[in-house]
Amino acid sequence: MYTVESLMKQLEELNIDRQGTLLIHSSMKSIGPVEGGAETVLDAFSGYMKDGLLVLPTHTWSYINGDNPRFNVEQSPSCVGILPELFRKRQDVVRSLHPTHSVAALGQDAVEFTKDDHRFDTPCARGSAWGKLLDRKATILLVGVDLKRNTFVHGVEEWVDIPGRLTDTHEMLYTVLPDGTEISVPSRRHCGLSWSEHFWKVDEVLENNGAMVKGQLGDATVRVCDAAKTASIITEMLEANPDLFSDNNPLDREYLLVKSVQ
Question: What are the tens digits of pLDDT across the range 75-86?
Answer without folding.
Answer: 999 999 999 999
